[in-house]
Amino acid sequence: MPEQIHDFKNIISEVIKKQIAILGPMIAIAKARKIAGLKINDGGEVVEIQGDPRDILERLINEYVDLSGLIIKRAMEPLLHKH
To answer: In Å, what is the CA distance from 12 to each residue of 30, 44, 51, 61, 79?
Structure first.
């Protein structure tokens, strides 16, 4: 199990770093820190996972998907109001 936790730490860190590149560090890290059971450092690296790592990964991805949907919606609003 410790090896599996290590794998999840790497996967989650990679997800966060990709989001840092897209959203910027402040937003990406703030969203990740909202996930219960997930502790990350200021660079986006996972320091600790408490609980089911699959569940934490899923909740993290959902947090970013929800944000991306909002970003897309906001970007489209001026276009929709125009027509």
So the answer is: 14, 9, 14, 9, 35
CB 39 within 8 A of CB 48: yes
Q: Where are the alpha helices (DSSP H) in the chain?
A: 2-23, 25-33, 53-82
What is the Cα–Cα distance from 35 to 56, expressed in whole angstroms?
7
User: Rounded to an integer, what distance in angstroms lies between the CA atom of residue 80 and that of residue 52?
Assistant: 41
Residue with more model confidence, 15 or 74 = 15
pLDDT digits (tens, 9 = 90+) for 10-30: 999 999 999 999 889 999 999
